[in-house]
Amino acid sequence: MNSLKNFVLTLGACFAVPTYFMVVRPYTSERDRLPVAYVMEDPGSGKAFDPAEQKGLYYPSVFSGDRKRGEEIYAREGCAQCHTQVIRPAYAGIDQFKKGWGHDQSGSAAPVATRPTYMWDYLHEDFALLGQRRIGPDLANAGYRFQGDLTGLTLAADAEKISAQKAIGLNNFYLYLYAPRVRKAWSNSPRYAHLFTVRRKEGTGASDALKLPENLSPELAAELNPPAGMEIVPTSAARALASYILGLKRDAPLPVSITGAPAKQESK
Ligand code: HEC
User: Fold this and answer.
1) Which of the four pLDDT bands, split at 50, 70 and 90, describes residue 25?
2) Ligand 1 in contact with 142 (CB < 6 A)?
3) Which of 109, 134, 198, 248 has the greatest number of beta carbons closer than 10 A?
């Protein structure tokens, strides 16, 4: 009888603990979410903000134009087979000692504060490409890792340096697509060379033509370097994919309760 009791209790615990972490806890934290305070005017000048700009600040941005097409190419090329776009809640997990959720853990990138993803983050996507398994890293915030090194640069004073850094970030992404092993010798990611064309260089060449590193190993150099007078240019599909991936930053502030439940203060 005693062993039956233990069995029932253990079984109960096996269901209760996951139910707490996966149902009760997310529900309670979501229903208490308070609205984000909208700043209606510039505190400095007292001038009213343009509502259209406000929308961009507070809502996850809508994918349009090239970014929308990039999303379709991401689906078409099967990227979601190996990459997720979900950051787990930070309270449940035995790997919490790792700092910087959703970031490259190798320490090469400067850490940027991120948060777990919520349903809200996928609001404007027709089909949220959450992914199935993590053979490659999570891409929910990939945009941060391909923006170059922007530390200490300000939009007003360093516009040129910022665009130079952005070009480096973009080239790093194209390098990943064209030949992942250029970036990481151990990479087990597939090549997406079909998203590029090798063509004759006209004048100074395309501004976004692939810049391969100088110090390639002889085998890689022989395989990848284009013949003299030629250049490797991303196709429109690769460009669209780049604007989609480089735009992935799931950091919009979370407004009103996602569950629709009234915020705690109002219900009191
Ligand atoms: C077969 C699995 C697989 C597929 C399919 C795949 N990747 Fe990857 N990807 C990886 C692996 C593994 C890595 C990590 C190694 C590396 O960086 O090369 C990676 C790395 C990346 C990175 C770098 C992430 C970072 O933080 O540095 C990006 C960006 C990326 N993949 C985008 C894509 C895109 C876009 C596609 C679709 C065109 C795609 N991947 C398809 C396995 C895959």
Assistant:
1) confident
2) yes
3) 248
* Cβ(188) – ligand 1 distance below 6 Å: yes
Torsions phi, psi for 233 (to 5 deg): -120, 135
Residue 3 contacts by C-beta under 8 Å, 6 or more apart in sequence? none
Predicted confidence (pLDDT) per residue in 107-118, tens digit = 555 555 567 888
Say if residues 78 and 190 touch (Cβ distance below 8 Å): no
Q: Are 254 and 36 in contact (CB under 8 A)?
A: yes
Cα 11 to ligand 1 centre (Å): 40
Residue 65 near residue 228, CB atoms below 8 Å? no
Lowest mean pLDDT among 24-38, 51-65, 132-146: 51-65
* Nearest Cα to Cα of residue 243 among 113, 79, 74: 74
Is residue 9 pLDDT above 90, yes or no? yes
Give nearest CA residue, ligand 1 atom 10.
136
76 Cβ below 6 A of ligand 1: no
Residues 45-74 pLDDT 10s: 777 766 666 655 666 777 888 999 999 999
Name residue 58's amino acid: Y
Sign for the pseudo-dihedral over CA of 105, 109, 114, 120: negative
Quick one: what percent of the chain has pLDDT higher than 70?
76
Find out whether the beta carbon of 184 lies less than 6 Å from any atom of ligand 1: yes
Mutate to test the pocket of ligand 1, among 76, 83, 103 (most ligand atoms within 8 A of CB): 83
CA of 137 to the centre of ligand 1 (A): 7
CA distance 58 to 113: 17
